[in-house]
Amino acid sequence: MRMVDLINKKRLGEKLTKAEIDFIIKGYCDESIPDYQMSAFLMAVCFQGLDEEELYYLTEAMIHSGEVIDLSNISGIKVDKHSTGGVGDKTSLVLGPLVASCNAKVAKMSGRGLGHTGGTLDKLESIPGFTIEVSIEEFHRQVDEIGLAIVGQNQDLVVADKKMYALRDVTGTVESIGLIASSIMSKKLASGADTILLDVKYGKGAFMKNVSDAEKLARCMIKIGESFHKNTKAMISNMNEPLGNAIGNSLEVMEAIQCLNGQGPSDLLELCLNAGSHMLVQAGITDTVEEGKEKLLEQIKNGQALNKLKEMVAYQHGDTSYIEDPQKFLLAPNKIAIASPKSGYVQEMDSLILGEVCMMLGGGRKTKSDTIDHGVGLVLNKKTGDAVELGEPLLYMYSNHKDILELEDMVIKSYVISSEKTERPILIEQVI
Predict the structure, then answer these.
(1) Looking at 146-289, which runs of residues are DSSP E strands?
(2) Contact criterion met (CB below 8 Å) for 388 and 339
(3) pLDDT at 278
(4) Residue 116 appears among annotated catalytic residues
(5) Annotated catalytic, 399?
(6) 161, 194, 350, 373: which one is catalytic?
(7) Residue 350 three-state SS
(8) One of 83, 92, 182, 183 is an active-site residue; which one?
(9) Is residue 168 among the annotated active site residues?
(10) Is the dihedral of CA 306, 307, 313, 319 positive or negative?
(11) Are 393 and 341 in contact, with CB atoms under 8 Å apart?
(12) What CA–CA distance (Å, rounded) separates 410 from 394?
């Protein structure tokens, strides 16, 4: 079998066999297939696509390119959730404790942020002492004992995806629904959960720019999950404006704590209640989504959801006093109000620009080696549909520098203000 023949075969739109796909993934991992040939293959896939059977074989080969985590020794249904990422998306920080407080077992491996999207691990590391590096044994024990763990992705998990993603990023082959789906699902399936809920974002601050593409990706991932006999659902949600009001690591942890206290932004709460209620149904804890929402609201009201976050932080060596008193988080010294250039109503926002502003402040990474500044970020004062007066703050910027003229201009460009009132955008498009 020769790689050049398989490249040509896919270039011509022909179907690859399981043996051929296994050969490609194994060869790329052991470096017998060089980057330039893998790049050509990935481009052929981008143009020709993969059918359901090829997707299954590709995902399977990627899963078995590294360690596969077995959680079967942990009692109960293990649930997991994945978001395709977005600006201000601190859902896992709320959803994990909330669902776990209802006696579901939440076993989650997360990643770091790159570009305009923040990473769950970076946010959690805002908490002094919090460690995301744990052994598989410790991960098992934590999920078994307290029902919740959010940790760094095991380096031996889905080795092929790490190599392929790095290559896709520099060869213009990221935008393939099949490659995106197999990348996400191979990691989820290798992580050992029984059920998977996917939050697929669309809009300016998301990778998928419209509902149609988000739905295609969601259905593709569901098919993969079901072919591996996993209970898989997908929620399609709007990322044309940031989720919640906080953008930035410490700021987002503070907002997540507010939400678990019942005082968070309405859109963040809505998303978490919807996602969480579906996860409870998947876990067999409630029979209906409505029942699930009631149960989740009760856990916020009685303080159990916040207590579960404290349990996880304590277990992973973090300082729980920051959960009890979020004002302890050290923020950047300069809090700068960005004033509206005119009166009217916020017609729309550009999440991508706001995410880039946060990154330029130091709250995100341009490259994987960049250091994160946990104390910088943005807190929105106005969102789509809100009335605003001339000179009134659109948002507050937390910065280590006072000279932020370029960033101020970017913020103002990210807001469209009109004389006509606009309705708030629909947050959750559908659940599949």
Answers:
(1) 148-152, 195-202, 231-238, 246-247
(2) no
(3) 96
(4) no
(5) no
(6) 161
(7) coil
(8) 183
(9) yes
(10) positive
(11) no
(12) 12
Q: What was the pLDDT predicted at 112?
A: 64
List domains and CATH numbers for the chain.
3-49 (1.20.970.10), 78-324 (3.40.1030.10), 331-418 (3.90.1170.30)
Whether pTM exceeds 0.85: yes
Catalytic residue among 78, 81, 82, 295: 82
What's the pLDDT at 206?
79
- At 174 the pLDDT is 80
Name the token pair of 429.
Answer: 């498009």
**pLDDT per residue as tens digits for the range 102-132:** 999 999 887 665 555 567 888 999 999 999 8
List the Cα angle 41/44/48 in 5-degree steps: 140
Q: Let me know if 413 is a catalytic residue.
A: no
- Residue entry with tokens 């704590």: 257
Which residue reads 């908490």 in tokens?
A: 127
Core vs surface per residue 197-211: b (16+ CB within 10 A) or e: bbbbbbbbbbbbeeb
Strands 393-399 and 334-339: antiparallel
Q: How many residues does the chain have?
A: 432
Q: Does 183 participate in catalysis according to the annotation?
A: yes
Catalytic entry in 90, 108, 123, 187: 187
Residue 272 and residue 261: Cα distance in Å, rounded? 13
Residues in the chain with pLDDT values less than 70: 111-118, 365-369
